[in-house]
Amino acid sequence: MKHLSDRDILTELAPVAEANLNDHLAKAKAWNPHDYVPWDEGRNFAAMGGIDWEPEQSRLSEVAKAAMITNLLTEDNLPSYHRELADTFGLDDAWGTWVGRWTAEENRHGIVLRDYLVVTRAVDPVALEQARMTHMTAGIAKPEKGSQFLRSVAYVTFQELATRISHRNTGALCAEPVAERMLGRIAADENLHMIFYRKLCAATLDLTPDESIRAIADVVLRFQMPGLNQPNFRRNAVLLAKHGVYDLRQHLDVVLKPVLRTWNVFERNDFTAPGEQAREELHQYLVDLETKAARFEEQRERALARELARAAS
């Protein structure tokens, strides 16, 4: 099968990108970040004659605060994501329009999350700003060897869906109606973004099956959320998994399996030997992940039972 360069793929899929862009624009809902923030709770900090943040001012649990901070810092790194997407898609025609539109929609997420957290004094704004500086300075890494386009499209499909789930579960965890409404609105955006990328990736599977399934397998086997470089990410990720914001079971059953099923990855018959090998690696990874997810759930149940027993004693 003839190898296609990223430029070839962009040219071939230009009509698909345009159709998906038009579909997205028809479905996307306009909304204003300021409509999701309880401004009447706001007050000055010390620099403006008010009172600086103290921990008792927050109404959120420690887990909810960790989830909100993780989500916001991930959204904050938008300039890095924009650069990578612009490098991958280019800025011509529908590709460039999508890059701009996606960036503008994603920017709302960071705006509304920060406004909410600062106005409600849910988290320490100084620590939040320090973490933002650190995370944005680190940026993100480019995809590994091979087609940057194929790996990027596969990655963002899974990542957008994972982010949607994290936002929705964080909203429920906050146990606060304004936060839940806000995070539900953000999650709706993320879902539409995922659909755009998922359709693109489906088109790459039809265009260049072997290279696409190789890219998908590589992304799944090495998947990391984009917030990996933010301060305390690993500690917070463990905490959020423990409390069901985003864990291995959700990653497997709500992200990986549904997307792979939509692409008919395990039913296709158009792979040659290299594609079949990549698909087999993917299958074995899913089998192993099922075992890991079940083990994590068992460990979590035992840990929660111990905590309940200590609380009752």
UniProtKB/TrEMBL annotation:
GO molecular function: metal ion binding; stearoyl-[ACP] desaturase activity
Note on cofactor: Binds 2 iron ions per subunit.
GO terms of biological process kind: fatty acid biosynthetic process
Binding positions for Fe cation 1 per the UniProt entry: 75, 106, 109, 190
Keywords of this entry: Coiled coil, Fatty acid biosynthesis, Fatty acid metabolism, Iron, Lipid biosynthesis, Lipid metabolism, Metal-binding, Oxidoreductase
Record-level GO cellular component terms: cytosol
Origin superkingdom: Bacteria
Statement: the UniProt record of this protein carries the keyword Oxidoreductase: yes
Coiled-coil stretches noted in the UniProt entry, renumbered to this chain: 279-306
Cross-referenced InterPro entries: Fatty_acid_desaturase-2, Ferritin-like_SF, RNR-like
Cofactors (names): Fe(2+); Fe cation
Residues that, per the record, bind Fe cation 2: 106, 160, 190, 193
Subunit annotation: Homodimer.
Family: Belongs to the fatty acid desaturase type 2 family.
Protein name: Acyl-ACP desaturase
Organism per entry: Nocardia mangyaensis
